[in-house]
Every structure is written in structure tokens, then in C-alpha cells.
Amino acid sequence: MLLMAILFFILMGVPQLVYWKMVSDSWLFYSYGEEGFNFLKSRGYRIFFNFRNGWFIYTPVMIFSILGMYHLYKRNKSLLWGILFFLPLHIYITFSWHNWYYINSFGSRPMVETYALLSLPLAAFIHYFKKSLFNQFILSIGLSFFILLNLFQTWQVSQGILLTEEGTKPYYMAAFGKTKMTERILITADTREYQPKPNQLRFIENLKSWHHNEVAIKSDSLHEKNQDNRLMLSSHSMKSIEIDLPTENLKPGDFLKAEIIAISDHWNNNRWNMARSIIAFSRDSKIYHKRWNRINNKLGNPEWSLWGGEPNVSGRAWFFVEIPKDFKTTDDITFIIENKFDQILTVDQYAVSLWKEDLEAAE
User: Fold this and answer.
1) Is 321:232 a contact under the CB 8 Å cutoff?
2) Cβ–Cβ contacts within 10 Å for residue 245, how many?
3) Which residue stretches of the chain have pLDDT < 50?
4) HSE on the CB side for 89, CA within 13 Å?
5) Beta partners for 321?
6) What pairing do the DSSP bridges indicate for beta strands 345-357 and 201-211?
7) Rg of the chain in Å (alpha carbons)
8) pLDDT tens for residues 291-332?
9) What is the three-state SS of 67-114?
10) How far apart, in whole angstroms, are the C-alpha atoms of residue 28 and residue 24?
11) Where exactly are the structural domains of the chain?
């Protein structure tokens, strides 16, 4: 049986070897370029409860399988030893890959191949809870909730509400249970920060603002303008605007709101290279806190798609950022509008304002 297993293992690899030989003239070919493993920096510990494709976050029913190892040990120790040897080794090797969350997947897809073995402790866990009607009732509720949650979140991914490869706790909580994408969910996904509702805050003052009818920004080689005095940004000309903000009236826990009104001349569905508005906190010329918001997917996008909006439609892109707890008034805060792509972003106006928590509204 062992010799047959070795034979069939080799036979299954032959088509891959033949293909490599045909296309590269080599029996072995590494197609991942500079991507690879770093066994000194395995990220296996992150796979369980990390919101970026975390295993138990998006497939929570497998928690029962891990708990079931104790019950499998009680019933059949010989079945458990192989699992205990294989599982840590699999996690260590697989999540030593340079991209530990494996980008575009729903949950931890490298763990799917472990389910054949993990079905055994899962079965042991279910068998243990079948001893009484009350335990069966509790188990049925737990299994049903976790399975339905997994299916619902799968549907959310298919509808563009949830993008687990960019998951964060604020984004996950904002999208939890939602059946429709909203502006607030989209901004939370982009900024990776909790976005307060407008009635939770009260406006204090504008720190910096500009409108195309004003002449505060001069037209020079770094700041191109069109005939209407609107700022034009692209990778071919002006790539960014950087404005220093006053800090004397700011306190930790306050909020800054950055907003711009702009138009993009082309549709840009590349989430990783969209124009961005940024607020960066720095001390001694080193940035210690930064939040940014994509601009292109806020323009001409009434459905609030993650992947961009219609071109040549004026829109508003805004976001809140909470001033960090360790902020000092001697720190520097910079507001940046950045466009790395060839598409021209025409800025009509921008503003950065100070907001504080409205205690009366909170009550």
C-alpha cells in the first residue's frame, strides 16, 4: 500500500512536470518570481482571529473542531496523534509564505485542505454534545448560527460588501449583518478606522479650506490649474498637494474631517492605485499615524462600490480620523491629496475641519 501511494503521488505530479518542460524547457520551474517563504517569520499565529482572512472569523464552525480534539483524545488517541503532528506543521509552513493572508480569498483558504482530518475532532465534539436533549439544542443553535454566518458573509463578498483580504475590526463591524453597501461602510473599509455618525460629533472650526474661486494656491509648476482655476493632479504633472494644518487647538480624542470635491476623467477600478486624501501625524519628521481615503470610488458611485465610480462625475470624498492618544501640539499634521495614476483628478475644493464628540447627542 505504501509503494502504491508513492507511485500514484509521482503519477499525479507528472502532468505538471511535463507542462513545465514544454513551456520553459525545464522540468522544474518556479513561477512566483521573488515571492517566497520566510521560515524565520511565520505568521501562523495570525490566522485564527485576524480580521484579514482570519480562519475563525470567517469559518467559525471550525472552532468546534479544535475544541473536539479533547473529546477525540478521550475516544481514540491513535487518531489524534497524526492530526497534532500535521496541523502545527501545516500552519507553520503555509503561513511562512510572504503573503500570510493569501490576498483574494474568503477566510483562510490554505486551511481548507486540512478539513478532511479536522472532520474527525469535529465529529467527536458533536458526538459528545449528543448526550442530552439540552446539549443537542445548544449545539444545534451554535452550528446553525456559525454555518449561516459563513454563508451570509460569503454572499456579502459576492455582493462587494465585504472584502476580507482588507479586513479590519472597524470594517467588519460596520458591514456586519448589512445587505447593502453604504458610504459609511466604504469609507470604513478604505480608512480602516471607525467612522462616527454625523450626529455623534459637533463642528468646531475649519482648519484649512480652499475653493476654486479663491487664489490661495498659486498656479506654478507644482500646481497646475485648468481654465476654471481648478487644481489638476496626475502622475504626468502635479502628483500631490500637501498642506500643513494648525495644531494648537487640537486634543487627543478630537476628530479631523477631510473632504474634497473632485472629478476623475477616467474610470479607475484599481483599488491599490486610486487617488487618495491623507492625514498624516508626524513627530521629529517621522510619521507615526496616518489614515487615508480612496477618492475614485467616491465619485459617480451611488451604489458605493469598492471598485470605483463613473468618470467625469463630480463627487465628494470625505472621512474622519481620530486624533491619536499620544498626540502633542508640537507634532506636525499634514493634509495630502495624492494621485499616482495617469487619470487626471480635477479638484474643485477641499477642507479639513475640527470636530468634537457631542456629549449631549451621545446621551
Assistant:
1) no
2) 18
3) 217-223
4) 6
5) 256
6) antiparallel
7) 26
8) 999 999 999 999 999 998 899 999 999 999 999 999 999 999
9) HHHHHHHHHCHHHHHHHHHHHHHHHHHHCCECCCCCCCCCCCHHHHHH
10) 9
11) 1-31, 33-157, 200-362
Tell me, rounded to whole angstroms, the distance of Cα 322 from its chain centroid. 19
Tell me which CATH homologous superfamily contains domain 200-362: Galactose-binding domain-like (2.60.120.260)
Query: Given phi > 0 = left and psi -120 to 50 = alpha, else beta, which region is 192?
Result: left
Q: What is the 3-state secondary structure (H, E, C) of the chain?
A: CHHHHHHHHHHHHHHHHHHHHHHHCCCCCCCCCCCCECCCCCCHHHCCCCCCCCHHHHCCCHHHHHHHHHHHHHHCHHHHHHHHHHHHHHHHHHCCECCCCCCCCCCCHHHHHHHHHHHHHHHHHHHHHHHCHHHHHHHHHHHHHHHHHHHHHHHHHHCCCCCHHHCCHHHHHHHCCCCCCCHHHHHHHHHCCCCCCHHHEEEEEEEEEEECCCCCCCCCCCCCECCCCCEEECCCCCCEEEEEECCCCCCCCCEEEEEEEEEECCCCCCHHHCCEEEEEEEECCEEEEEEEEECHHHCCCCCCCCCCCCCCCCEEEEEEEECCCCCCCCCEEEEEEECCCCCCEEEEEEEEEEEEECHHHHC
CB 120 within 8 A of CB 83: yes
- 114-128 pLDDT, tens per residue? 999 999 999 999 999
- C-alpha 117/C-alpha 140 separation (Å) is 22
Measured distance CA(60)–CA(206) in Å, rounded: 45
Distance CA 339, CA 263 (A): 12
Q: Which three cell numbers stand for residue 93?
A: 509552513
Count Cβ atoms within 10 A of the Cβ of residue 332 and give its class: 0-12 exposed, 13-18 middle, 19 or more buried: middle
Q: Which residue, chain included where needed, has cell 489524534?
A: 80
**pLDDT reported for residue 254:** 96
What are the CA-CA distances from residue 76 to residues 67, 70, 71, 73, 124 (Å)? Answer: 15, 10, 9, 5, 9
pLDDT at residue 253, rounded to an integer: 95
Residue 39 to residue 256: CA distance in whole angstroms: 41
| C-alpha of 79 from chain center | 38
